[in-house]
Amino acid sequence: MRAYSHTHPKAQSLVEAIPEAARKAKSMNLPYWIIAQDVSSFGIVIVGHEPLQLTAPPGTPVALVALEPSQASAEDLPDFISTVTKFVMEKNLANALVTLSFNHREAVTQFIQAGFEAFDDYYLMSCKLSQHLTLSTDLKFEPVKPEEIREWFNTATRFFAGSTDTALNVALQFMPNLPDAFLTQYLANENLYFVTMGATKIGILDIHRTNAWIGNMAVDSERRRQGYGKQILIFALKQLQTRGCSKAGLRMHVNNNPALKLYGSVGFKKTARYKRLLWRNTKFLSNSP
């Protein structure tokens, strides 16, 4: 197998066999390489810089790997994985992150055997928005202004501390140093809120501006188990109802049992489970002084 740049003359014909991976690459508007053998394509490697997935400090070059399960058999996987890791080393990228369906167990096993480590394990959950939900008047939801975006991230970092979400804990290390351009773009895509009681911030929330997706929500550790998490969630669902959305989605780490109970209480159900695996390039040479 070898890696073909998206600008290679063969690229167009190669991506036709891996539509799911190709859609992901094109949606990110980043350079990508197709992993193929002769006329058979097996997946894509997307190259960018953090904060792409917050696996390393901002500015670090990293790779995202998209495997097309329908194309790659168990016999193809060792060659595919070897080609990916060699590519990462040749391009001097710090790491490679691959997302795999929990049901694709052979692929998960082979990636781990090749040196990838468990990075994330999460459910996708969905909820129909037909039910009537009652929102308390005790909490206020204050939209975040552009000049408050860094404060929102700093508050989120504090409220998320000690989370069972392993990927989030890695991301928290890098949140204080996120570049201004990233913060501006993030606010352009997300409706962010400070959740307050009186003059005290007790939670945070973000809802995607165009998708029916609840991103991050958290409650101050000193205010948990008092029903505030549910009220924040109900507010988010009502916002989506107001937009005319018929359902809502979110992501949840598999070990977050309190969140599973909370989401289930308003009708969320698991729809899929995914694992993210990370390969660290031990030969990565940082350009930092």
CA gyration radius, whole angstroms? 20 Å
Helix content: 25-40%
CATH topology type of the largest domain: Aminopeptidase
Largest sheet at a glance? 8 strands, mixed
Average residue pLDDT: 91
Number of domains: 2
> How much beta, percentage-wise?
25-35%
Low-pLDDT regions? none
Distance between the termini: 36 Å
CATH class of the largest domain: Alpha Beta
CATH architecture assignment of the largest domain:
3-Layer(aba) Sandwich
Shape: globular
Question: How many helix segments?
Answer: 9
The structural class is alpha+beta
Q: Biggest sheet, strands in spatial order?
A: 1-2-3-4-5-12-6-11
CATH superfamily of the largest domain: Gcn5-related N-acetyltransferase (GNAT)
Task: Tell me how many strands there are.
Answer: 12
Order of helices and strands: EHHEEEHEHEEHHHEEEHEHE
